[in-house]
Design goal:
With about 600 residues, the protein is of the alpha/beta class. The chain is about 40% helix and about 20% strand. The protein contains 21 helices and 26 strands. The protein has a five-stranded parallel beta sheet with strand order 4-3-5-6-7, sandwiched between helices. Strands 16, 17, 19, 20 and 21 form a five-stranded antiparallel beta sheet that branches. Helix 9 links the parallel strand 10 and strand 11. Helix 2 crosses helix 3. InterPro entries: AMP-binding_CS, AMP-dep_synth/lig_dom, ANL_N_sf. It comes from Shewanella benthica KT99. One of its GO terms (cellular component) is membrane. GO terms for molecular function: ATP binding; long-chain fatty acid-CoA ligase activity.
């Protein structure tokens, strides 16, 4: 198929006509009618949204914002806007008012879709300070609206009748739609500075869909669980791919419920970030450590068998009847139980957002849950490189996808070129020019490429830390190792211009309190628990084990346990959970000084 045939609205229209009454969208634990939306209803609802926008006077390429948790309404609104050739501007549902107002003003959005009561209240305040914003549409029909003709419930909007001329105009816009139309502005918060609006057009997404089609075993009817935020390019781009391929997308409004949702939904696939996999891995390791020695030995044997079998599957080892029989036994006794925790029918799991520790990656490959690590960014419409079922090297992010080129530049910076690379930053011509070098996007990430073309991420170039002894440390590598501990929720290391590495650690309090109770520890408050000598010793021993593979200069020598998590509200993490190191170091300057004896 030509790239023009992969235009998103046309692909989804084609699936709607072919699949009709089959389920396209499902709201996990949502009430009717949003618990299940058929393909034909999806098409008619999104068409109603498009007619409403035209009725409101929206022109092609006008901007529309969405501030909401994941839901079928989110995607119906998204596709409805795209049918009118509008530009959709997602806003993180857990973001601050300041971030939202900046985005609305910069994009000059005229309408905002709000999810629930909290989002509606923020939307009302935004209309007071953002001159461009006029219309507000709320997904949750239980929200009481202000007495304002420009405020609407989504359910009412899609039930209204619109003049025939809106449908005539919609047909004209669908006919005029082209790959050079801007599809979305996604504002990347970054770890420093103001958010920048990444301009992604229909060509970017059409190319993404076509390329993914060539190497992913996704088939019509497959179920995908959307639990990462749709406001991020990873989940939204993946949802576009799922729906373009005739898949069944299940929306999780509360990401904290993912453990229960996976078991109930039994997805064929879902996008995850490394932290999700680290938590699953650490939970298994913790359970095994408490099991009888006979079960521990069984687990070790099964993992060895699984590793050898996965190497056979990758063509790196020769197959044997004995190993095949051992694997079947290991699968029956161990792996099948582990896979049930993940729903029992996963075909593959795309993972991105940060580097995945090779040990964690190897664990999932061994239990026959294919984790496909990829590398990309908002500026590359997510995936630039990706592992495939036939090529999974632990620690790598795979080869460049078929129509994308990668190479290494100065300081081993990863450079990317292809149809999925952004048009530029909205209203920022100079920053756009600075981000490109002879047509190649400068990612700001450092890496290496092996003889088979597999990309390995070493770190963010700007985040490399140089100790006072002249040694360079990649913080994400150290934090990834330490983050595998079930007792550690978040960690930020300190090393730049220091003579040894220290860490600020946020414990997993729920698990720590269970452990403390088992040990008979007495404490009056969380602070007292964190300062308890047995707790300090417990973390010291954990760190010693976790850092066994690190070089001496990379290892954390001292640490401070913190009573509060790094949060977006405090300005310590970005919406994509990246650490704002400068802000963290400023907030905890006293604790850091104490670790260096000052």
């Amino acid at each position: 198929m030509s790239l023009e045939q992969y235009h998103l609205t046309r692909l989804i229209k084609k699936q709607s006509l072919q699949l009709g009454d089959a389920i396209a969208l499902e709201g996990y634990e949502m009430a009717a009618p949003w618990h299940q939306v058929s393909w034909s209803d999806f098409d008619s609802i999104s068409t109603q949204v498009a007619q409403a926008l035209i009725h409101f006077g929206f022109e092609a390429q006008d901007r529309v914002a969405i501030l909401a948790q994941n839901s079928p309404q989110w995607t119906c609104a998204d596709i409805g806007c795209l049918k009118t050739r509008a530009v959709v501007v997602p806003i993180y549902p857990t973001g601050t008012f300041g971030q939202a107002s900046y985005i609305i003003d910069d994009a000059e959005a005229k309408l905002i879709f709000a999810g629930d009561q909290t989002h509606y209240e923020m939307a009302c305040k935004l209309t007071e300070v953002c001159n461009s914003l006029v219309q507000v549409v709320v997904f949750d029909k239980s929200v009481t609206l202000q007495d304002n003709a420009n405020h609407h419930h989504f359910d009412d909007l899609i039930a209204d009748s619109y003049p025939a001329k809106t449908l005539i105009e919609l047909d004209k816009r669908l006919e005029a739609a082209n790959l050079d139309d801007l599809l979305t502005l996604i504002y990347t918060s970054g770890t420093t500075g103001e958010p920048k609006g990444v301009m992604l057009d229909h060509r970017n997404f059409a190319s993404m869909v076509r390329q993914h089609d060539s190497f992913l075993p996704f088939t019509p009817g497959d179920v995908s669980l959307a639990f990462l935020p749709l406001s991020h390019v990873f989940e939204r781009g993946w949802s576009f791919y799922v729906l373009s391929s005739g898949g069944h997308n299940v929306y999780l409004q509360n990401p904290m419920a993912v453990k229960e949702a996976i078991v109930q939904v039994r997805p064929h696939t879902l996008c995850v970030v490394p932290r999700f996999l680290e938590k699953v891995y650490s939970a298994v390791q913790d359970k095994v450590s408490k099991a009888p020695s006979s079960r521990q030995k069984l687990f070790v044997w099964a993992m060895d068998v699984g590793h050898r079998q996965s190497e056979v599957g990758q063509g790196r080892k020769k197959a044997s009847l004995a190993l095949s029989l051992q694997w079947k036994l290991a699968d029956k006794l161990v792996f099948s139980k582990l896979k049930q925790v993940l729903g029992g029918r996963l075909k593959f799991m795309p993972v991105g957002g940060a580097a995945l520790d090779p040990t964690v990656s190897a664990f999932f490959q061994s239990i026959d849950v294919p984790v496909l690590c990829g590398y990309g960014m908002t500026e590359t419409t997510a995936t630039a490189t990706c592992n495939t079922l036939a090529n999974r090297v632990p620690g790598s992010n795979g080869n460049a996808i078929p129509e994308v080129e990668i190479k290494l530049g100065k300081n081993n910076e990863i450079l990317v070129r292809g149809d999925t690379v952004m048009r530029g930053y909205y209203n920022r011509p100079q920053e756009t020019a600075d981000t490109f070098e002879n047509g190649w996007l400068k990612t700001g990430d450092a890496g290496r490429i092996d003889e088979q073309g597999n990309l390995f991420i070493t770190d963010r170039i700007k985040e490399l830390m140089k100790t006072s002894n002249g040694k360079y440390i990649a913080p994400q590598r150290v934090e990834g190792k330490v983050g595998c501990c079930p007792f550690i929720e978040q960690v930020a290391i300190v090393a730049d211009a220091k003579n040894y590495v220290t860490a600020l650690i946020v414990p997993a309090f729920e698990l720590l309190e269970i452990w403390a109770k088992e040990k008979g520890l007495h404490y009056e408050s969380p602070i007292e628990l964190l300062r308890h000598s047995h707790v300090i010793e417990h973390f010291e021993q954990r760190l010693k084990t976790l850092q066994i593979d690190l070089a001496g200069f990379e290892k954390i020598k001292k640490f401070t346990l913190l009573p509060e998590a790094f949060s977006m509200e405090a300005g310590l993490i970005t919406p994509t959970m990246k650490l704002r190191r400068k802000m963290i170091y400023h907030k905890y300057a006293r604790e850091i000084s104490a670790m260096y004896g000052r």
